[in-house]
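QA checklist item 7 of 12: single-chain prediction sanity check.
[x] sequence parsed
[x] length recorded as 386
[x] structure emitted
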Amino acid sequence: MSPTIESAEHKALRSAVAALGQRYGREYLARVAREGGHPDELWADAAKLGYLGVNLPEAYGGGGSGIAELAIVLEELGAAGCPLLMMVVSPAICGTVIARFGTDDQKRTWLPGLADGSRTMAFGITEPDAGSNSHRITTTARRDGDDWILTGRKVFISGVDIADATLIVGRTEDARTGRLKPCLFIVPRDTPGFGRSVIDMELQAAEKQFELTLDEVRLPASALVGDEDAGLLQLFAGLNPERIMTAAFAIGMGRYALVRAIEYAKTRQVWKEPIGAHQAVAHPLAQAHIELELARLMTQKAAALYDAGDDMGAGEAANMAKYAAGEACVRAVDQSVHTLGGNGLTREYGLASLITASRVARIAPVSREMILNFVSHQSLGLPKSY
């Protein structure tokens, strides 16, 4: 089956997840965020139905499917107004990396809990001075006997307060070349020296953002994920799903906003006809719908390539999907708010907060400018600008 033509199974999954999302909706998530809580009820229900671990191996309690299916789950929850951001991090990034590269013990320890939602894991890569450049990471890991000692800082790390552990990206020295290479470590939340502080965000979300400090954090050898010499491969095995899931997150948000605007445009009358009869209102909404559909196609392609094991092809497609979805989401939200006029800024209609939220997909986990850099020199063969 072509990734551009959804299978009956994928359509059924969309329908089932949409039904779950409609039971909760935007007001549920907004209330949880206002009260400083977490969407525990939705997370538990999604887990019970097998949605959170749909991409993880059946041998460890998962659904045995792929990122394509997990992206459908996140998109449909987003379209219902209640996306679960931790899905991007816990099953998509951390679960995928551990399933592909973890030791047998790491798989037994973590995958069943990640699959059934009883355990969550955060992902720590971004640093204050590195931005989108993973090659400038300064968090270092050095050997001390059989242990590892981690030192460094991370910033804008989601959900650390509720995660049982954080998958930290550090760098260790290659014994042969002396160069620093990336390595991944599982750091339990209460590990001595592992500190966190909340970042005060204008964005209102249930998942808080944190700055992390690793002050001589001592970890056993078993904390290292996979092969010490395969860091980049393992790192991008997690970053590609992250981009695909971010695209799904953005598409769902854009769809949610667009549906609200369409409903309004069908019923709101200022003159004789509903405002949706006027092309100045209808055409921009139609354009937003087209752009979201195109972004979804690229997301499906990226997921299909990744699930087929084509990491290189998936890297290009995942970056393109994330770029396209971020742009489509921002435009869909902007046009939806504009369609409602003053009502688009009221809490009653629930669209104004999306003006800020929609920008996330343009900025995180990698900026659109860095994606354009990637495409210009990787896809087009142009010289690097940095």
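[x] summary fact logged: Residues 231-267 form the longest helix (37 residues).
[ ] second reviewer sign-off
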